[in-house]
Automatic annotation (TrEMBL):
Keywords: Lyase, Metal-binding
Taxonomic classification: Bacteria, Pseudomonadati, Pseudomonadota, Alphaproteobacteria, Hyphomicrobiales
InterPro entries linked to this entry: Fumarylacetoacetase-like_C, Fumarylacetoacetase_C_sf
Source taxon at top rank: Bacteria
Family affiliation: Belongs to the FAH family.
Annotated EC: 4.3.2.3
Protein name: Ureidoglycolate lyase
Statement: the UniProt record of this protein carries the keyword Cytoplasm: no
C-alpha cells in the first residue's frame, strides 16, 4: 500500500494512493486521524477502512499539498556514514560501528515546503536518503526479525549546513537548522518493495543536474542491521523514523563545492517510492515577507 498525508479538496487526512489517484481515508473513518500514527499503532481496522474507501471521491494525487507523515515522532535517528564512497569523499575511515545522530522535529518539513537556507551560512547541502518508519516497537530486536518492525519506507533529504556541522566534533548544529529536512510525501509499505528496500536506485538532482546517483544495495548497514543496532541502546517505538545515510556526490565534496541556492528546487527520488521535491528559499527573504504582511 501507498499512503500520503496531505490536504486536498476533502480536507486534511491520510490518503490511500493508487497510481495518480488518492482517497481520503480520514473522511471514511475519523479514527484514522490526520497523520499516520493511528495506522502505525493499529488503532483502526485498516482493511475495513480501505474496503469502504468508495464513500469518498478519488482526488488527483497531484492536487494534494503534502504534510509530514508523522507529526511528532518520538525519535528521528540518522546514520551519518553508510555508503563507502561517501565515507571516502568526506575523508573518513570506514567505521566498524555506524555514525549516529538525531534530528529534532523543528528541522523537519514535508515535501513541497520551502527548504530554508539560513541567513548565517551559504553552505546548505543536500543528502538523498531512504527513511524507515517503525511500526512495531521493541528493544534488543534481532536482525533476522527486524524487518517485521517496519511500517513503511519514505524519502528524506538530510539538508546539512556544513559550516556549522564542522564547528565541533558533534554534528548536531549543522543537522538541525529549522526547515532543512524534507521528508515524504509517499510512505510505501514493505510488501511493495524488496526486502529491506534493498537494491533501489536513489538519486538527487536540481533540474537536469544529477547530484547523486547510487543504489540502496551500497549501504554498509542494511535496514535490518540498523534496526538491530539501534535497538541495542534505545527502545524503538511506533512512529520513530530512521534515516539510512546518503550516497556519494554531496555538495561539500565537489570541486568547486556545490551548495543549494535560493530559487532552485531540489529533488530526491527513490525507485519504487517516488520523488521528494522542495524549493530552496533564503531565510532573509522569508523574514522580509513576513515583516511586510
Amino acid at each position: 500500500m501507498r499512503f500520503i498525508v496531505g490536504t486536498g479538496v476533502s480536507g486534511k487526512g491520510v490518503y490511500l494512493v493508487d497510481g495518480e489517484w488518492a482517497w481520503n481515508l480520514t473522511v471514511v473513518d475519523s479514527a484514522v486521524g490526520t497523520e499516520l500514527s493511528a495506522l502505525i499503532q493499529g488503532d483502526v481496522n485498516l482493511g475495513d477502512v480501505i474496503a469502504s474507501k468508495d464513500k469518498t471521491d478519488a482526488e488527483p494525487l497531484s492536487s494534494l499539498t503534502p504534510g509530514l507523515p508523522v507529526d511528532r515522532p518520538g525519535k528521528i535517528i540518522c546514520l551519518g556514514l553508510n555508503y563507502v564512497d561517501h565515507i571516502k569523499e568526506g575523508g573518513y575511515d570506514i567505521p566498524s560501528y555506524p555514525a549516529l545522530f538525531m534530528r529534532c522535529t523543528t528541522s523537519m518539513i514535508p515535501a513541497g515546503a520551502p527548504m530554508i537556507r539560513p541567513s548565517c551560512s551559504e553552505q546548505l547541502d543536500y543528502e538523498a536518503e531512504l527513511m524507515v518508519i517503525i511500526g512495531k516497537g521493541g528493544k534488543h530486536i534481532r536482525e533476522q526479525d527486524a524487518l517485521e518492525h517496519v511500517f513503511g519506507y519514505t524519502i528524506f533529504n538530510d539538508g546539512s549546513v556544513r559550516e556549522y556541522q564542522r564547528k565541533t566534533h558533534q554534528w548536531t548544529p549543522g543537522k538541525n537548522f529549522d526547515g532543512t529536512g524534507p521528508v515524504g510525501p509517499v510512505v510505501v509499505t514493505p510488501d511493495e518493495l524488496p526486502d529491506g528496500a534493498d537494491g533501489l536506485k536513489i538519486e538527487s538532482r536540481v533540474g537536469q543536474e544529477i547530484l547523486q546517483s547510487a543504489t540502496t544495495s551500497d549501504m554498509l548497514w542494511s535496514v535490518a542491521k540498523t534496526i538491530a543496532t539501534i535497538s541495542e541502546f534505545t527502545t524503538l517505538q511506533p512512529g520513530d523514523m530512521l534515516a539510512m545515510g546518503t550516497p556519494p556526490g554531496v555538495g561539500h565534496a565537489k570541486t568547486p563545492q556545490r551548495w543549494l541556492r535560493p530559487g532552485e528546487t531540489v529533488e530526491v527520488e527513490i525507485e519504487g517510492i517516488g520523488i521528494c521535491a522542495n524549493p530552496v528559499v533564503a531565510e532573509e527573504d522569508i523574514v522580509a515577507t513576513e515583516a511586510a504582511e
